[in-house]
Specification:
It contains 2 helices and 9 strands. The protein is of the alpha+beta class.
């Protein structure tokens, strides 16, 4: 089981996105994703997202909001539970990321990027709904086979 976080950092109707291009063995190679990563030992989701955002971007989150939790399942990969955060309250200057290229992308253009299919579903919820949600995605490789959405 993998525990991870992701944050969609917002500025001027754009999200800061990471184009995963720099790691050879990367499940998300060549995909665009939000900022985040795996929990370290004894970390809470909040501690993890603050650390990951700072390590990957150089930005310090001042405030952020937990918006949802996603369960990823696959026959090929270990089950992952990902906490989804958003923030528009941060400080600092962007640094070069060792996992890929950081870029501010207009929210409406993200659907045209090479992202995971499930990401498009929860990004739509982030934009259109303030309620907390959970989702479960079942993948076969890059193909989304099934999904369930629960609203709270």
């Amino acid at each position: 089981m993998i525990l991870s976080t992701i944050c969609y950092i917002e500025k001027n109707n754009q999200y800061l996105m990471l184009h995963r291009t720099k790691k050879e063995k990367d499940i998300s190679k060549d995909k665009w994703i939000g900022i985040g990563g795996k929990f370290e030992n004894n970390e809470s989701p909040e501690e993890c997202i603050k650390r990951e955002v700072f390590e990957e971007t150089g930005l310090k989150l001042k405030t952020f909001k937990l918006r949802g939790i996603v369960t990823y399942t696959s026959k090929e990969w270990e089950t992952e539970y990902m906490y989804i955060f958003t923030s528009n309250d941060f400080e600092g200057d962007l640094i070069e990321c060792n996992e890929g290229d950081l870029e501010w992308i207009d929210k409406e253009k993200i659907v045209n990027l090479n992202t995971w299919e499930g990401d498009k579903l929860f990004l739509k919820k982030l934009e259109n709904d303030n309620n907390f949600f959970t989702m479960k995605f079942e993948y076969d490789g890059d193909n989304l086979l099934n999904y369930i959405i629960y609203d709270y």
